[in-house]
């Protein structure tokens, strides 16, 4: 690291001691060991690492808007961009946003057109997805290697889901107060912003010594410990190399970001109708007693939606679950519907009953479900309204729908037998392990068998 950059960094009161080498080293590389950075040099260095629209916004902040642009930027401003985006206050991040959009941050009366905010958010989200792909961390690889991809259309939907409530209803203008309110309740966007700029300032584009002869081969050096992915680790698809995914990584990230923090680290594959067959009994046998789960459904019209079930699934005439439960839609829009607290109708599962509904339900009430999968596999229902979840609207294309795909994932660590039995006692639910005849039959049909110490995959001949 050059002495010039280090001295500039040490004099910058904004930077914490641990940040000095990061920002100084980045500045040295881009400025070519001088005291100023040229716009062209910065774009050549960072350009491949982000969405082109974000590159334009960054140059607006660093060099000024068109018509009043400086040819160079000095260390102080370069450090401000890092600090404000990675760990800045809400006020500082709004200042970056306003400067990036060519607005005056000092004015309290500033109004910004909603489409500009939406495009800014989309540029950050797109850059975030590009960053995790380029970094190639273990979470990303665990999904990408099994057939999951990043789809541009889904990035746009994710960005829209993060930006849509920045405006007050009935207006297309965003005030500074609107932006402050929005950022305060949008931790996902703030984490993406932090990750993108951590990625840029940690980025080291250096020649690969082994291939230096051709003068072109390069590699990115980005320390993984500095960057935490919001994607969970995918577990359980080791033997399914070409998994028939009907969701993309933007959609999985959207769901994961709404889960309780303790369950965001890992997703465990439990069931896929494309792999395990179109059987309700097989579905039950693979998801019961597995702890918290995410259910994802695609209907015959291509709508994708589902729900987060915080309790283990178990046969019962009673509702189980808690206020952490939510429903969501991924296509045609991405939205999450959290609990209203109005009732506790979060999870229902029953089978072979004469007087009770047979199937899996989340939200609403009997025959008026937020989401219902019937025990006669292949049909489901989503009502027009649901008092269990805030802001709910009908998830499926039509109230009664035909199922194209169903997936279920366990989230977080699988509970121990003792933990699960404790939950069953509180809820009155029947665990697979209670010896119930229906439960044993379900396990048998799903290719699993019950043993005295629990249950596991049935031995093959």
Automatic annotation (TrEMBL):
Which PROSITE patterns would you find in this protein's record?
Answer: TLDC
Q: Region Disordered: which residues?
A: 413-461
Q: Pfam families, from UniProt? A: TLD
Here the segments flagged for biased composition (Basic and acidic residues) are 446-461
State the superkingdom.
Eukaryota
Provide the alphabetized UniProt keywords.
Cytoplasm, Lysosome, Membrane
Q: Which residues form the TLDc domain?
A: 245-412
Subcellular location field? Cytoplasm; Lysosome; Membrane
Q: Provide one Gene Ontology cellular component.
A: lysosome
Gene Ontology biological process terms in this record: response to oxidative stress
- Membrane-crossing ranges are none
**What name goes with this protein?**
MTOR-associated protein MEAK7
Native organism is Anopheles farauti
């Amino acid at each position: 690291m050059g002495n010039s950059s280090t001295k500039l960094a040490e004099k910058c009161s904004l930077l914490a001691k641990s940040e000095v080498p990061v920002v100084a080293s980045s500045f040295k590389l881009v400025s070519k060991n001088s005291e100023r950075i040229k716009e062209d040099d910065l774009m050549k260095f960072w350009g491949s690492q982000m969405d082109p629209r974000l590159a334009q916004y960054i140059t607006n902040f660093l060099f000024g808007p068109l018509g009043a642009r400086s040819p160079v930027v000095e260390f102080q401003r370069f450090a401000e961009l890092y600090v404000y985006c990675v760990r800045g206050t809400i006020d500082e991040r709004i200042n970056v946003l306003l400067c990036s959009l060519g607005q005056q941050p000092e004015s309290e009366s500033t109004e910004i057109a909603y489409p500009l905010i939406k495009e800014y958010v989309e540029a950050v989200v797109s850059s975030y997805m590009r960053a995790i792909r380029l970094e190639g961390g273990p979470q990303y690889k665990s999904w990408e290697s099994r057939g999951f991809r990043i789809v541009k259309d889904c990035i746009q939907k994710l960005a829209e889901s993060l930006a849509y409530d920045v405006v007050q209803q009935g207006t297309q203008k965003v005030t500074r107060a609107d932006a402050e309110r929005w950022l305060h309740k949008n931790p996902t966007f703030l984490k993406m912003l932090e990750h993108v700029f951590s990625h840029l300032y940690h980025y080291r584009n250096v020649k690969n010594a082994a291939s230096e002869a051709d003068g072109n081969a390069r590699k990115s050096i980005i320390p993984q410990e500095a960057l935490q992915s919001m994607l969970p680790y995918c577990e359980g698809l080791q033997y399914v190399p070409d998994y028939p995914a009907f969701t993309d990584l933007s959609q999985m990230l959207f769901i994961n970001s709404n889960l309780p923090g303790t369950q965001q680290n890992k997703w465990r594959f439990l069931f896929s109708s494309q792999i395990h067959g179109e059987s309700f009994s097989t579905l039950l046998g693979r998801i019961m007693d597995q702890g918290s789960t995410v259910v994802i459904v695609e209907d015959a019209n291509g709508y994708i939606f589902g729900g987060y079930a915080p309790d283990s699934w178990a046969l019962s005439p009673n509702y189980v679950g808690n206020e952490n439960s939510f429903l969501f839609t991924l296509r045609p829009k991405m939205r999450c519907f959290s609990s209203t607290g109005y009732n506790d109708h979060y999870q229902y599962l029953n089978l072979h009953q004469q007087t009770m509904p047979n199937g899996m339900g989340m939200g609403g009430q009997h025959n008026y479900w937020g989401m219902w999968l019937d025990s006669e596999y292949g049909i489901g229902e989503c009502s027009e309204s649901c008092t269990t979840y805030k802001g709910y609207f009908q998830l499926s294309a039509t109230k009664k729908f035909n199922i194209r795909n169903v997936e279920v994932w366990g989230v977080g660590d699988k509970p121990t037998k003792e933990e699960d039995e404790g939950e069953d006692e509180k809820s009155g639910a029947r665990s697979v392990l209670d010896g119930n005849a229906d439960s044993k039959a379900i396990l048998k049909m799903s290719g699993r068998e019950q043993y005295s110490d629990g249950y596991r995959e049935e031995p093959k001949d």
